[in-house]
Amino acid sequence: xxxxxxxxxxxxxxxxxxxxxxxxxxxxxxxxxxxxxSATPDVSDEIRSRMAEIDMGDTNSIVSFGSAAQAxxxxxxxxxxxxxxNKDVGxxxxxxxxxxxxxxxxxxxxxxxxxxxxxxxxxxxxxAPFAKFTAKFETVxxxxxxxxxxxxxxxxxLLKDIKSLDLLYEKTLQFYDELALxxxxxxxxxxxxxxxxxxxxEVEVQAAPENDQVMLAxxxxxxRAARDDLERRVHDLxxxxxxxxxxxxxxxxxxxxxxxxxxxxxxxxxxTVPLWETQLAQAVTIQRSAEAAKAVREANDLTNELLTSNAxxxxxxxKMIREEMERGVFDIEAVKQANADLVATIQESLQIADEGKAxxxxxxxxxxxxxxxxxxxLASAKARKDGIGDNAGxxxxxxx
Length: 400
Fold this sequence. Notes:
This protein has 400 residues and is mainly alpha-helical. It is built from 10 helices and no strands. The protein has helices at residues 3-21, 41-51, 59-63, 67-87, 90-104, 119-124, 129-207, 210-326, 332-383, 388-393. Helix 1 (3-21) runs parallel beside helix 7 and helix 2 crosses helix 7. The longest helix is centred in the C-terminal third of the chain and has 117 residues, at 210-326. The chain is elongated, with a radius of gyration of 61 Å. The termini are far apart.
């Protein structure tokens, strides 16, 4: 965090104390409407001035009774809604969440130089853990500086909003008291109508000639209707006053939320951010020490690996060379196998020759037997002199 931001955060502490210790006045009770008979002279004058606004012969004066105060309520409500829309508390809360998320982005497992990269990291060709850590630290430092600037701006904006809400609360409270005067004036006018004006009009109707009674009776009905309109208007003003009373704690609730957020932002700027930066600096130092220790360990591991590998290779090559030196030109097993195969080959050749000789002798006997049978058959045919044997016999040579 820059020195400028740190100085601004320290200055804001006094402003935070000022807005958090401000005490707002409490509204009067909803039923605390002072009647004209019990009011002080100043309040009595205010009530009578509002009673003078009522003209029972003019319906508009009854309908618009207290409208000026209601218009002020509408302006106050619109200002309150505009404040909620334009104040935009969201970014301040987002900045707090962002700074926490940024710090939490340092995974302890990512600082382990011995861990194997995941297939996803290999696929994307990500940097080694420490290189990634160093780059990430530089990014986080820049993010912290930017976020602290944003938080400081949000803090100043919220402080202005809290003071604006103080003014809005005071105006709403004034309007709340103003409605009480209008309600008291309306009730006093209703009491006057019920006890004086309407009874006098009734007497006038009864005492009037028959020709004028119809007109006066209509005036009496109009007066009673206007009286009912005024009663309904006073009831509406009572409802409006109740709603106004409910808006007062709403304003205070918004203020309390803003004050809490301002306090949180200020605490983050003054206390939390410097602590995070210190922890990050320690993390870098620890990681560099771990990298140095890793390099020393790998050098020692390489030396030990070379010693053990060379010894194992020497033993294996010595064994192989000595075995080859002690072998003969021909292995006795190979000679024995070759001799056995040669003997078996000669025996098989003699056996095959004997079998061929026997088959030829047997075939010769068979041929002689077939020749003898053929000559006997031909001789028998010639003796019968049927003419067949003469021609057939000439094709076979005589026996020798």
